[in-house]
Design a protein that fits this description.
By secondary structure, the chain is an alpha/beta fold. Helix content is about 35%, strand content about 20%. The chain has two domains: about 50-290, Aspartate Aminotransferase, domain 2 (3-Layer(aba) Sandwich); about 290-330 and about 345-385, Aspartate Aminotransferase, domain 1, CATH 3.90.1150. The mean pLDDT is about 95.
């Protein structure tokens, strides 16, 4: 009997070692990770730079509190400022904490700095922002909220990619509009061209802060370091996590110089946030992934994978929605995504993820090659054709 709470439907396999896209069981079986540990292992498993940095930093210093300056943390903050265009960073331990911090910062900025009683947060239906109570309240999917009521007050939801609906919903009490550039847990729905830029302009006109949840879409996943950079829209705040530290837990709230004034000493904190180990590793990850040639290859690989899927499994696919190496494969009506995902796992030893009844989510490591794409396409075709 397991003593773990049953919060996951865990499959009967345990991995003991990883390398690149490969995961090994203790019996020596090889599985192929096309989910990147749910978007965390963007550099694959056991990337040599990540491993070496962990070893060296762990032998030097793991943790000191944020009562003192942490050199590695300050270096990472500077790197993230350069790649995002946002001047300030607050470090925490996960994506949901980053979303919580972003919401708190937006509300405190509106009230403390601007002196306006703005507290409402508008998000989108089908969105997913995390599991803590505040992030759950921001999530526009009732299935995640059920039985956790009452939720945190002050949240409203609008249809995604619908500017008119957002304009109608904003009130003088609206503090923040928070969106995902691609709705990942909602089925991999990217923002339509021009939408995020229009939202940013509308927010500026109405005195509302514009935040983007880049927990899953960031750190190269969508072919730019942050997905918003592909849309030409500059947010006031960004939440980032998952892949940022190569597999170690980290989260960060990025904010403009102006909005960052919303936090003051003792207004927000995190005991483990930004410790020397995780920020040293994240600094190396940022250096690798922010390279323009690396990011160009991500988009090239994603386009190749989409092209091969459509050309070889066209009759089994209703639609592919993609940005970079983030793909939502919508299956034809006679196919069940859960069954296809199960067959990929059991028959092909491939890790992917089913969303609902007809969508297969694929998040290959950003180091994937055309050969890795071909392997997935052939396995997928064997199971759906």
């Amino acid at each position: 009997m397991s003593h773990l709470m049953e919060t996951y439907r865990r499959l009967a396999v345990s991995f003991v070692r990883g390398e690149g896209l490969k995961l090994y069981t203790k019996e020596g079986e090889v599985y192929w990770d096309y989910l990147s540990g749910l978007g965390v292992n963007n550099l694959g498993h056991s990337h040599p730079v990540v491993v070496k940095t962990i070893q060296e930093q762990a032998a030097r210093l793991l943790h000191v509190s944020n009562l003192y300056r942490i050199e590695e943390q300050e270096r990472l903050a500077a790197q993230l400022s350069e790649v995002s265009g946002l001047a300030k960073a607050f470090f925490c331990n996960s994506g949901t904490e980053a979303v919580e911090g972003l919401i708190k910062l937006a509300r405190r900025y509106q009230r403390q700095v601007r002196g306006e009683d703005r507290f409402e947060v508008i998000t989108a239906y089908r969105s997913f922002h995390g599991r803590t109570l505040g992030a759950l309240s921001a999530t526009g999917q009732e299935k995640y909220q059920r039985f956790f009521e009452p939720l945190v007050p002050g949240f409203k939801y609008v249809p995604y990619n619908d500017l008119a609906a957002l304009e109608e919903t904003i009130t003088p009490q609206t503090a923040l509009v928070l969106l995902e550039p691609v709705q990942g847990e909602g089925g991999v729905y990217p923002a339509e061209p021009g939408y995020l830029k229009q939202v940013a302009e509308l927010c500026r006109e109405r005195g509302v802060l514009f935040g983007l949840d880049e927990v899953q879409t960031g750190v190269g996943r969508c072919g730019s370091f942050y997905a918003f950079q592909r849309y030409g829209a500059q947010p006031d705040l960004v939440s980032s996590a998952k892949a940022l530290a190569g597999g170690l837990p980290i989260g960060v709230v990025l904010a403009s110089e102006e909005v960052a004034q919303g936090f003051a000493p003792s207004s927000h904190a995190s005991t483990f946030g930004g410790n020397p180990l995780v920020t040293k590793v994240a600094s190396q990850v940022v250096q690798i992934i922010s390279d323009s040639e690396f990011l160009a290859q991500v988009e090239k690989t994603g386009a190749y994978l989409e092209e091969q899927l459509l050309s070889q499994a066209g009759s089994a696919i209703s639609q592919i929605r993609r940005l970079g190496l983030m793909l939502g494969i919508e299956l034809s009506s006679e196919l069940d995504a859960g069954e296809v995902n199960k067959a990929l796992f059991t028959e092909e030893k491939i890790l992917a993820n089913a969303i609902g009844s007809h969508i297969l989510r694929v998040l290959p490591p950003l180091i994937s090659t055309e050969a890795d794409c071909d392997r997935f396409v052939k396995a997928f075709c064997r199971q759906v054709l």
